[in-house]
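Input record (one chain):
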Amino acid sequence: MALANAVNRDTGDTREIARGLRDRDVAVLQMLVEEYQDRLVRYLVYVLGRRDGVDDLVQETWLRVMERGKSYDGRSRFEPWLFTVARHIAIDFLRRRREVSLDAEEDGRPLVMVPASQELSPFALAARTEDAERLAGALQELAAVQREALVLRFMEDMSLQEIAAVVGAPVPTVSARIYRGLAALRSQMEEKHGS
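The corresponding structure, as predicted from the sequence alone:
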């Protein structure tokens, strides 16, 4: 079935997705919802730092995908395009509620790149110890831009270039957010739970 393969990440048939969105094919949208719904919910929960209101934003995201599907050209993976749409909706939601913007820099200091250590990241440690609940709690304490970068990189498996496209920031800024977020997570995990 060509349509099922279009949604399958392994086949990479993004042009079929683009054609289906351009034609407003409800079957394509339904397949996309089935494939990406849980990931979209997870992303928005982490970006917003809470669960309430996420279902409405997810629904709004899918409506926007259908409305603006013509702008997806199928030349790159679908996920970055989808998460960009969701991010813009989340920013609008936060602005309406007059909350902190995802566009704000962490603390006003210049972003500095430092080489990553060879130690396991907190994500890898949590996966090994099956301590996802503690990791989720620690993620909520990070700055929104760091949390978003970490979720896109390690939970959504996006490249630095894809993340940069989603968040509208240069790749070095994305790298710095990931580095700082991992350092903060490592520090939190060690402080609260020992090494």
